[in-house]
From TrEMBL:
Signal sequence, start to end: none
Family: Belongs to the XseA family.
CDD domains listed in its UniProt record: ExoVII_LU_OBF
Compartments where found: Cytoplasm
Native source species: Thiohalocapsa halophila
EC code: 3.1.11.6
UniProt protein name: Exodeoxyribonuclease 7 large subunit
Lineage: Bacteria, Pseudomonadati, Pseudomonadota, Gammaproteobacteria, Chromatiales
Oligomeric and partner information: Heterooligomer composed of large and small subunits.
Pfam families named among the record's database cross-references: Exonuc_VII_L, tRNA_anti_2
InterPro entries on file: Exonuc_VII_L, Exonuc_VII_lsu_C, OB-fold_nuc-bd_dom
Length: 467
């Protein structure tokens, strides 16, 4: 009895006993690893939509059914709301819900049945055109920063033309728009759009083309999935910007275009900058102008300092007039340069104002004029202040030149000699005799001395002998 029990325990120890959790986990790994993403078609039933935002339903046909789970992140991307009894085509991954051991499909994408075959054909077409290099990013051109004229290829009666024109008028109404009306769905629409592209390139009236259409079903957007249209877009010498359908709609025309916007309105916003942005650029240019003027003023100040040093090294009495004329010339050149710069900027600002007057944004323009006038007044005040400082420095330089008095001459070794006690300045040796007392003014201090001998100049000696 004891030996048998021990043997039985040994056998139990060697068994590989699985838990239910392990079994379901292994089954799930096998299911998910055995098959790729699948396209499955069927009818929705037992639809459940809990507050979490997820969606649970059964997909069935006449012979079988399977549970499906569509999680909130994927559900938010759907272009429709699923309902019971609806035929759908789902792209899903086979999996197993471990908590209950339920075999199910985890849905990644779902669309109404009928579009499925069409989408598969479009995927094959996209792969073929991509292999031909039609979608290469390296071949795509940069859109113009500020187009001179925009060509709009769309239906003349659709909502897209209104949306695009409204956004363009709001952002930058100065840019003209030329509309090429075309049908955007139905038979012949793709050929008409391609013909409009060719016409726009022949006329060469625009430097940017916008290809736009409002939202719709896959069938409605099929004109923009035409291969010939894709080739026409790539053959265009003018950059092409697309705004077709909604953000989730990605057509072959979008892939072939130089740039794609999710909607027609977004295409209009991409095409032109906002007037406020241009105003900011103008303000930045004004700041650069002010900085340049400050730089020139600083350079002039440095030249003035250099001139002042040169004056200090030379005889100021001989050079003062020349330097003053030079400074006046520099000041006049600076004034002329500043006036020319101001006139140029004023003319540019006036051209901007003249262009902006033609727009419907009169109230905003008045505000911009007031800001520009204030900026101009501040700039002129800054210039006047800079000129006042330069004039003050010039005055100081003159004052320093005036400071070059005889005392400065004494610094170079000269002296002022006076006869004592009356302190008359001596200009001739004939004015004193031996034994007279004299005073000597030096650069630092004063001396009193007695004349040992006096030697008048020859002309003075001759004059005395005549007398």
């Amino acid at each position: 009895m004891s030996f048998a029990a021990t043997a039985e325990q040994t056998v139990d120890f060697q068994r590989d006993i699985w838990t239910v959790s392990r079994l379901n986990a292994e089954a799930r790994a096998i299911l998910e690893g055995s098959l790729p993403l699948l396209w499955v078609q069927g009818e929705i039933s037992n639809l459940a939509e809990p507050p979490s935002g997820h969606c649970y339903f059964t997909l069935k046909d006449t012979g079988a059914q399977v549970r499906c789970a569509l999680f909130r992140q994927r559900r938010q991307l759907l272009g429709f709301r699923p309902t019971n009894g609806q035929q759908v085509l789902v792209r899903a991954r086979l999996t197993l819900y471990e908590a209950r051991g339920d075999f199910q499909l985890r849905v990644e994408h779902m669309e109404p049945a009928g579009e499925g075959a069409l989408r598969l054909e479009l995927e094959r077409r996209k792969r073929r055109l991509a292999a031909m290099g039609l979608f290469d990013e390296a071949k795509k051109r940069t859109l113009p920063t500020l187009p001179a004229r925009i060509g709009l290829i769309t239906s003349a009666n659709g909502a897209a033309v209104h949306d695009v024109l409204t956004v363009l008028a709001r952002r930058l109404p100065l840019v003209p728009v030329l509309i090429y009306p075309v049908p955007v769905q139905g038979e012949g629409a793709a050929a008409a759009i391609a013909a409009a592209l060719a016409l726009a390139n022949r006329r060469a009236e625009c430097d940017l083309l916008i290809l736009a259409r409002g939202g719709g079903s896959l069938e409605d957007l099929m004109a923009f999935n035409d291969e010939a249209l894709a080739h026409a877009i790539r053959a265009s010498a003018i950059p092409v910007l697309t705004g077709i359908g909604h953000e989730v709609d990605l057509s072959i025309a979008d892939l072939a275009a130089d740039q794609r916007a999710p909607t027609p309105s977004a295409a209009a916003e991409t095409a032109v900058p906002a007037a406020a942005d241009l105003q900011q650029r103008l303000t930045a240019l004004q700041r650069r102008l002010a900085a340049a003027l400050r730089g020139r003023s600083n350079a002039a100040g440095q030249r003035l300092l250099a001139i002042r040093r040169r004056l200090q090294l030379r005889d100021p009495a001989a050079r003062l007039t020349q330097f003053a004329q030079t400074l006046d010339g520099l000041q006049q050149r600076l004034d002329r340069a500043l006036r020319r710069g101001l006139a140029h900027r004023a003319a540019a600002l006036e051209r901007r104002r003249a262009g902006l007057r033609a727009t419907a944004l009169q109230r905003r323009l008045r505000e911009r004029r007031l800001r520009l006038a204030a900026s101009e007044a501040r700039l002129r005040a800054a210039l006047d202040d800079a000129m006042a400082r330069r004039r003050q420095r010039l005055g100081l330089a003159g004052a320093r030149l005036d400071a070059l008095s005889p005392l400065a001459v004494l610094q170079r070794g000269y002296a002022i000699v006076t006869r004592l006690p009356d302190a008359d300045v001596l200009r001739s040796a004939a004015a004193v005799s031996a034994g007279d007392r004299i005073g000597v003014q030096l650069a630092r201090g004063r001396l009193q001395a007695a004349v040992v001998s006096a030697e008048p100049a020859r002309d003075e000696a001759a004059s005395e002998s005549d007398h």
